[in-house]
Amino acid sequence: MPPLPESVPLSWYLLLSAVLFALGVAGFLFRKNIITVFMSIELMLNAVNLTFVAFSYKFAAVDGQIFSFFVMVVAAAEAAVGLGIILTVYKNKSTLQIDEINSMKN
Amino acid sequence: MHQLWLIPIFPLVGFAINGLFGRRSKALVNAAAIGTVALSFLWVLKTLAALGMFGGSMPEEQYVERYYTWMASGNFNVGFDFAVDHLSAIMLLVVTGVGLLIHIYAAGYMAHESGYYRFFAYLNLFMFFMLVLVLGANYLVLFVGWEGVGLCSYLLVGFYNLEKFATDAGKKAFIVNRIGDFGYSLGMFLIAVNFSSLDFGKVFESAKNMPVDTGAGLFTGICLLLFVGATGKSAQIPLYVWLPDAMAGPTPVSALIHAATMVTAGVYMVSRSAPLFIHSPIAMNVVAIIGLATAVMAATIGLVQNDIKKVFAYSTVSQLGYMFLGLGSGAFAAGMFHVVTHAFFKALLFLGAGSVIHAVGGEQDLRKMGGLRSKTPITFITLLCASIAISGVPPFSGFFSKDAILAAAYQHAPWMYWVGVVTAGMTAFYVFRAFFMCFFGTYRGDAHPHESPLVMTGPLMILAALSVGGGFLPIPHFLEGMFPKVEEPANEMLVYISVAAGLIGIAIAYVMYVLKPGMADGVAKAFRGPYELLYNKYFVDEAYDATVVEPILQGSRTVLWRGIDVGVIDGVVNGIGARSRNIGGILRRAQSGNIRNYAAWVVLGSVIVILSMSLAGGLR
């Protein structure tokens, strides 16, 4: 495995990943559109992926990269199912506002 | 192998058939109930013949069949084993033989009762347990039968389950027996601990080499506890109170269970444990004294009872007391002999009483009978045989066994003999009092008396023959090898005195109830106090109620029910439920159903975890 370029230290990757993750959390918590919430989830997943890959590179171990592949596969599957659900919800309710879809409550 | 297990299994099969299919047809019930007991009787005969009983060549030692190990714990083993020896051979013949006759009789007696199949199912089940009791080769198997017959007694005493007095009597029989069984269990534990076996053979073998208790030692403890069990099952002071009430059951039940077989189980068990009892003079003395006291007390109560079955019930208690007097005096063979003859004449007395009750349409009060001599001639003759037999007039069967007991009692302590003789006189008096009130004078009831059918009178006649001739059966000789030898004094005077006592009793009864019918009431008036005391059975039931039953009832009600059950147990359970609901009420607010709310909780949680880890130095 080629050595990690000295110019970019590990902490920068982690910092970026943390910022992306925080953005994802914020989006998940505060946005009202389901699609946006959904994208926020993807953002969090990919922030974690970035961490995996960075550590994998730093410690010259392939495990992290394999893990990130798994995460991507799960994310793809989730996107397929999730978007399907969102479409159905929109067909039935004609809205994507997350606060209005609460028929399971009570 | 003689396949001993078949003996009890036949009636069990009968029980299953009657219980499962008996509702369909009466003929099936008759066939199953009587047929299985007959098969059992025949198998007993075949087995005993094969063992050489009738040729006089039966070996002295037990013939044991081991089926399987019931429980094994270390070197302590209890097997499900059956055994036959001279003692159980006699009991087997009595139980199956008399049992068969009573089954046949019951087919006639119960013909018009509802619950016919239920009755015979219980009766067959009783036979099964009684045979297990007799065949058991160790104390535990015996106890299985012991408890089983108690259960069947309960079921059959309460057979008329719509009548409150019958179910009450059933409960009383069961509960009083439970007290005795408690003593028996403790005795059994004591044997298991000290002999590390419950097998009759092993226990008696090791007991043989141990010294006789001079004071109150191990043997005294074991024997007295076993005897507590016997007082329950065989209706001795202080636990005899259930037997008179047990007459609430149908008459064949009174004859089979409460006269001929089950109540003699205590006598059988004590005789069986003779090798232990002879090691404890104190226990023997207690047995003799309790037996004698019971005999006297029950006989005095029997003098004034007006219910024909009650008279015979107290007579049974009294005769059982005689048997224990014999056992306690060391004459085990005489006691067992009396078990056999008593089974004949007491079963006959009860069956005859049943025939009379049947004849007068269900009436049991002696004051409403009378003059039945010509209307029920067979019952009259057979009951006369039984009455003479129980009075101890030679050459009827009761004479031989009672005389053997009294002779042994004289050997043990002369005063016991004299009390026994007086009791014999009273026995003759009250039995003939009932007999005369029933058959002589004029009929005082309002039914139309008629003789019973052959299915009932047949067993009466067979039992009458046995009551007359049963004394010539060589039972004491047959049992000689089982028990230690007692030397019998050839004191003919004692025999004459006891026979005279019986004859005097009969004569007094004849004068009071046949020659001068009004005399009995005059005597009762003249001795108002004693009469009331006897008529109310010494107020023993009332005393037990006040001292035992009521305190337990009240204590259960206030302390156990309202205090512990409602207060503590229900309180704890309900308290746990109520607290769970309170806490749940608070926690449910967190479950808002809003997905972002949950997410916020997750974020908050992870922040707290990370912060606490960094504070604890988990993050570097």
Explain the overall architecture.
The complex is a heterodimer of chains A (106) and B (620). Chain A has three helices and no strands. Chain A has 106 residues and is mostly helical. Chain A has a domain at 31-99: Orthogonal Bundle (Helix Hairpins), CATH 1.10.287. Chain B is mostly helical and 620 residues long. Among the domains of chain B are: 280-531, no CATH class; 536-574. Chain B has 25 helices and two strands. A two-stranded antiparallel sheet of chain B has the order 1-2. In chain B, strand 1 (63-73) and strand 2 (76-84) form a beta hairpin. The N and C termini of chain B lie far apart (85 Å). The mean pLDDT of chain B is 90. Classes of the chains: A mainly alpha (106), B mainly alpha (620).
Coarse structural class of chain A: mainly alpha
> What's the overall average pLDDT of chain B, rounded?
90
**Alpha plus pi helix count of chain B:** 25
Q: What proportion of the residues of chain B is helical, as a percent range?
A: over 70%
> What overall form of chain A do the CA principal axes indicate?
elongated
* Topology order of chain A in helix (H) and strand (E) letters: HHH
Distance between the termini of chain B: 85 Å
Strand content of chain A: under 5%
Q: Main sheet of chain A, how many strands, which sense, barrel?
A: none
Number of helical stretches of at least 4 residues of chain A: 3
